[in-house]
Write a structure and sequence with these properties.
The protein folds into two domains: 141 residues, Rossmann fold; 104 residues, OB fold (Dihydrolipoamide Acetyltransferase, E2P) (Beta Barrel), CATH 2.40.50.1020. Helices cover 29% and strands 31% of the residues.
Length: 259
C-alpha cells in the first residue's frame, strides 16, 4: 500500500533534498509539493494525502496554522513537523504517529516517522485529529521565534525602500503582483499573494476589505456609497485615493466605525 505524501518547505533546496531522501522509500508516493502554508493547505484539501511533511516556519501560514486548519477536514493526514529549533523537539516525542524532525534531516529520522505512519495504517483506530490537537497543545507555538517583519521592502524603479509596516495605508494585488501604498510612495513587494502579506500585518489594524485589497482602517477618512450596495473607502495619507469595500466587509466595518 502506497503512502500518498505531500512535502512542504519554503526553502527550495530543503524541499529538493527531502524529495530525494523520500525516494529511497518504495511505498512513499509524493503527490504534491508546496513552498508556503497557504499553498500547502490548498494542496492537502485537494489531494487528501496520507502523510504530510510540514515545515513550521513559512510565509503566509506557519506549519501549526496549517495543521490546525486541515485537522478540521473530513480526512486528517499524518503530519510530521520539520524545524530547525531543537528546543521544541523533545516535547513532541510522546505523541504517537506524529513526529517532529530536526533539520538537517537524516534518513534514519525519516525512516522512524514513516514506520510510525505504517503502524497507524495497520491500526486505524487511532484518533489522528485528537493527536494533532494534543501535539499543538504540547508545543508552545508562542515561544517559536517569529518571522513577522517590522518593516517591508518596497521596490520602486531601481530602488529598494524599507518601510515600517504601520506606515502602510493600503495594499492591493494586480496581475499577480502585490503592491503597497504609503503616504510617501507606492511600489511592488516580493509577496506572492495578499494572504502572505496579510499574515505579516496586525489583524486589528489591517483588514481584507475586498478580495484584492487590504486597508489600514485607521487611515479611512470617508466611506462613499457605490453601486449595488457596495462602498468605496477614501484613504487618508495616500492622496485620498479610493479603494473598494465589499458588501460582506462593509457589515463588519459598519459596526466598528459606527456608521
Amino acid at each position: 500500500m502506497s503512502i500518498r505524501t505531500i512535502i512542504v518547505d519554503d526553502e527550495p533546496l530543503a524541499l529538493e533534498e527531502l524529495a530525494f531522501q523520500l525516494g529511497a522509500f518504495k511505498d512513499i508516493e509524493i503527490v504534491a509539493q508546496a513552498v508556503n502554508g497557504i499553498e500547502a493547505e490548498q494542496l492537502i484539501r485537494q489531494h487528501q494525502p496520507d502523510l504530510v511533511f510540514l515545515d513550521i516556519q513559512m510565509p503566509g501560514k506557519d506549519g501549526f496554522q496549517v495543521a490546525r486548519d486541515v485537522s478540521n477536514g473530513d480526512q486528517v493526514p499524518h503530519i510530521v513537523f520539520l524545524t530547525a529549533y531543537d528546543q521544541y523537539a523533545l516535547k513532541a516525542f510522546d505523541v504517537k504517529a506524529i513526529d517532529y524532525l530536526l533539520k538537517p534531516i537524516e534518513e534514519s529520522m525519516i525512516d522512524r516517522a514513516i514506520q510510525r505512519v505504517r503502524k497507524q495504517q495497520t491500526s486505524p483506530d487511532g484518533d489522528m485529529r485528537g493527536q494533532i490537537e494534543t501535539l499543538l497543545r504540547t508545543l508552545d507555538a508562542s515561544t517559536i521565534p517569529s518571522r513577522k517583519p517590522g518593516r517591508i521592502a518596497i521596490k520602486k524603479e531601481a530602488r529598494i525602500i524599507l518601510v515600517d509596516m504601520e506606515d502602510i495605508v493600503y495594499a492591493y494585488i494586480a496581475d499577480g503582483v502585490v503592491f503597497v501604498v504609503t503616504a510617501a510612495l507606492e511600489g511592488m513587494t516580493s509577496y506572492r499573494a495578499l494572504e502572505e502579506l496579510e499574515a505579516d500585518l496586525d489583524g486589528q489594524v489591517f483588514w481584507r476589505v475586498h478580495r484584492g485589497y487590504i486597508a489600514n482602517i485607521s487611515r479611512v477618512s470617508e466611506v462613499v456609497p457605490w453601486f449595488s450596495g457596495t462602498y468605496r473607502l477614501v484613504m487618508d495619507g495616500a492622496g485620498n485615493q479610493e479603494i473598494p469595500l465589499s458588501r460582506a466587509q462593509s457589515k463588519k466595518l459598519r459596526k466598528v466605525l459606527k456608521w
